[in-house]
Write the structure tokens for this entry.
Amino acid sequence: MVHSQQSQAFGNAKVSVCNSKTLLNKPTGFINAYDFTLNPYRGCQYGCSYCYAAAFSPNPQMQQDWGNWVIVKQNAVELLKKELVRRNKNRWKKKNPDFSDRLRADRPPSIYMSTVTDPYQPIESREKLTRELLAVMVAYQPTLVIQTRSPLITRDIDLLCQFQRLRINMSIPTGSEEVKQDFEGRSPSITARLKAISNLRDRIPDKQGHQIKFSVTITPLLPTLPADESRFIEKLAVADRVVIQEFHAAHRGFLMASTPQEAIALKQKYSWWYDRSQQSYNNFKESLIAQLDPYDVEIMEDKEGFAYD
Ligand code: SF4
């Protein structure tokens, strides 16, 4: 990434712009089966307390300030055009020998957007960068997965309708607004996210030859208050897949983007869940299975759940 320059602030966030060297990058971990990851921004205004992406901040000061800055990759559209053309000519194979078994010239790439930012965080309403990237991608018909927690995605229904292989993963790690507020105070309400996924489902037509899929990713699984659990699970029937993933509370510092004191306070507040976290996870999973059984919803865990198919 080339050095960034300050731009106009947006809400709580200091905004800067940069010219990135690459846009389509090699995936690792849970999503390594995809050809590429695509992150239109660096940083994320939602600033979720558990966000592992904070660890990839440009410096320790910015890691501490996670949620209060965002860097716009101002050359993203131009880069994507170049990289998709280059890939089409199959040059990726030569440049990336590791990928040679996965990148075949006869199939479009698979792209995961995004892994270390939210492509529909608030700044996107001004920049429209994700929208522009979608407009470029649609001509190449990649297998595309969009991971977001923002209802702003509904703005782009006109473009989303044009993809043939698309999965929209809506992140909703808890069914309780109070818990959401404690762990990710700046993110949209759970109600707004559920409404957005239902809206997308209703408005993206089921065209022949198109496979548009909708997941709710409860990842990482945060506590859901017993009083909210059943009502929350019932609403998940709007998706065709629900993904759960254990929150590794034993992780150093517990919450990557919080101070240790904040993390300890949260863990204590939700001790009824975290003191027996394995049991809490298993109980929630069992409730999901029991309640969603009458519906056509697959329940998946961990890496398997992040696959397109
Ligand atoms: S929305 Fe995603 S990328 Fe943004 S802070 Fe939350 S977990 Fe991190």
Notes: The pocket of iron/sulfur cluster is lined by residues 44, 46-48, 51, 53, 117-118, 149, 184 (CB under 6 Å). The longest strand covers residues 211-218. The first helix runs from residue 60 to 64. The chain has 13 helices and twelve strands.
